[in-house]
């Protein structure tokens, strides 16, 4: 049997300690990565909530849009909103129908006055 070299035993102990340290550091990094992923997901959800709130607030621009009373940047933003918001799209369509009918009724009333 070959005698055990003390330097081999010390080297093995040193390697084990380094491996344990690396494993501990890896576990710490994994924990941090999981926390970062959870934070990122929470931020994504908050952004989605804020985007929904902005879309809802944009609905408040409908009347000003109809009356051509929005600044150019808000007008453009509302047009983009309109492409996504069925409620505003339906309200705008209804407004157009009502304005057409009011114009027709007004034209008939004026025609009756002339005759």
| Low-pLDDT segments, ≥5 res | none
The averaged pLDDT comes out at 90
Total beta strands: 0
Number of helices: 4
- How would you sum up the major sheet? none
Radius of gyration computed on alpha carbons: 35 Å
Order of helices and strands: HHHH
Say what oligomer this is.
single chain
Helix content: over 70%
What is the total number of structural domains?
2
Task: Kindly name the structural category.
Answer: mainly alpha
How much of the sequence is in beta strands?
under 5%
Q: Any idea what the shape is?
A: rod-shaped
The CA-CA distance between the termini, in Å, is 129 Å
Walkthrough of the structure:
This protein folds into two domains: 1-55; 60-115, no CATH class. The chain is built from four helices and no strands. It has helices spanning 6-59, 62-66, 72-84, 86-114. It is rod-shaped.
Which descriptors would you attach to this protein?
115 residues, mainly alpha, rod-shaped
SSE order and pairing:
Layout: H1 6-59, H2 62-66, H3 72-84, H4 86-114
Give a short synopsis of this structure.
By secondary structure, the chain is mostly helical. The chain is 88% helix and 0% strand. It has two domains: 1-55; 60-115, no CATH class.
């Amino acid at each position: 049997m070959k005698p055990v070299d003390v330097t081999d035993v010390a080297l093995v102990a040193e390697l084990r300690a380094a491996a344990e340290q690396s494993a501990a550091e890896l576990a710490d990094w994994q924990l941090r990565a999981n926390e970062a992923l959870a934070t990122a997901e929470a931020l994504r959800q908050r952004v989605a909530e804020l985007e929904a709130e902005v879309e809802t607030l944009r609905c408040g621009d409908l009347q000003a849009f109809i009356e051509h009373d929005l600044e150019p940047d808000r007008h453009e933003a509302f047009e983009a909103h309109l492409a996504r918001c069925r409620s505003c799209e339906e309200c705008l369509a209804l407004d157009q129908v009502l304005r057409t009918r009011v114009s027709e009724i007004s034209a008939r009333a004026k025609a009756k006055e002339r005759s």
